[in-house]
C-alpha cells in the first residue's frame, strides 16, 4: 500500500519512543561532531604554538595555559606539555569518532524503521 500525504497513520507509543530516541541520537551526533571539530582546531593551535617555540631558546620562560590560569615554564617543558596534550586530544578524538559511527548506525536503523511505517509523512533528514 502506498501512502499519500492525506493518509493518517496512527502514532503509537512505540513509534513515539523511536522518534524520541532518534531525536536524542541526532542531538548527540551533532554534539560529537562539534566537539571533534573543536579538537581539530585545538590541535592546529597547539601545532602552531609548538612551531613558534622552535625559534626560542630552551631555557626561555614562556606563559603556558594550565586550566584557567597561566604558569611560566621553560620552552622545553612547554613542548613536553603540548605533546602530552596532543596525545590526549587525539585519544578523545578517536573515541568520539567511534561514538559517532555507533550513533550514526543507530540513527540509520531507526530512520529505516520509521520511514518504513510513515513514509513521506515524517522527515528525519537534516536540512
Strand order of the largest sheet: 1-2
Order of helices and strands: HEEH
Structural class: mainly alpha
Strand content: 5-15%
The whole-angstrom Rg is 24 Å
Distance between the termini: 28 Å
Number of helices: 2
Sketch the major β-sheet: 2 strands, antiparallel
Structural account:
The protein is mainly alpha-helical. The protein is 67% helix and 9% strand. The protein is built from two helices and two strands. It has helices at 13-53, 75-118, and strands at 61-66, 69-74. The protein has a two-stranded antiparallel ribbon. β1 (61-66) and β2 (69-74) form a beta hairpin. It is rod-shaped. The chain starts with 12 loop residues before the first helix and ends in a 9-residue tail after the last helix. The model has no long low-confidence stretch (mean pLDDT 90). Heterohexamer of two PFD-alpha type and four PFD-beta type subunits. Belongs to the prefoldin subunit beta family. GO terms for molecular function: unfolded protein binding. Binds specifically to cytosolic chaperonin (c-CPN) and transfers target proteins to it. Binds to nascent polypeptide chain and promotes folding in an environment in which there are many competing pathways for nonnative proteins.
